[in-house]
Amino acid sequence: MPLGTLDRNPPPLFREGPSALTKLAFCAALAVFLMVADARFGITAPARSGLALVLHPLQRMLLAPVDAWEQAGDYARGMERATEAENQARRQLAEQAVVLSRAAQLQAENQRLRALLDLREALPVKSLAAEVLYEAADPFSRRIVIDRGSHRGVRLGAPVVNDSGVLGQVTRVYPLSAEVTLLTDREATIPVLNTRTQQRGVAYGGERGVMELRFIAANADIKPGDALATSGLDGVYPPGLPVAKVAEVERRGDTSFARVGLAPVAQPDSARHVLVLEPLLGQEAAREEAAAEAASAATTAEGNRKGGKSGRSSRAAANVDEAASAPAAAQKGASR
Question: How much is the pTM?
């Protein structure tokens, strides 16, 4: 091939175009034009809106993992806060339940104490307030222990009552406590009076927390619902205290006595505060001592009054003698 036929033009890869400076100037001018045109005429707003519309699904797809992670974190934190709030609410509910039960207990105790105060004001005998500590462990007897003993003036045989009626009698006294035998004990007895018919009798303790009225004639005027109160004949219980109500009356032809079941008005299982009364015999002895002291005081005062009168009379006689002897002494002095 002859040399004149060879193509001496450079290949397209090595072709030279506009210079870099020219390209920079063109791009800068184009950018300035586009900025000015966008600022003045907003020609790029439709293009931007279309591009945003096209890229929105892609953006949401790319943000889905991030949103899922944040939602999972919010769910976990929400569950933790909800669990903590629930635990706190449960604790508050438990505390409020304790406070509510305590308030109900205090209200009931306040009512019982008010009833005891009214009862103490109504009773014409000395009384001492006490609290039930516990029930005696003997399974064959019905006894309770109170927190008052001989140091507080509790006497053996003192009646014990609550706001409903008679509970029992003090059978053992210790320095700081005392043991009370309830009326429902098998060995307990108390003289009673039927408030409707004024018939006297003796109530005995029985089994399973009940009492019975023994030695009542089969034709006696007694019926269920009759109220029985203390008669005061034993010298221990003050008269008129509620004891029990007649629960049932069974009259049989094979015996001359009726079987009378009683329900005590004072329930020992619910008693928390009681009053320990002074026995009537102790009151009589105290009244006799007080009467003797009053009589001795009156005698002493009378003797003092008599002694004062005699002393005053002797002093008056001495004054008279002195007044009579004064003129004689004056005459003797004059004669001298």
Answer: 0.52
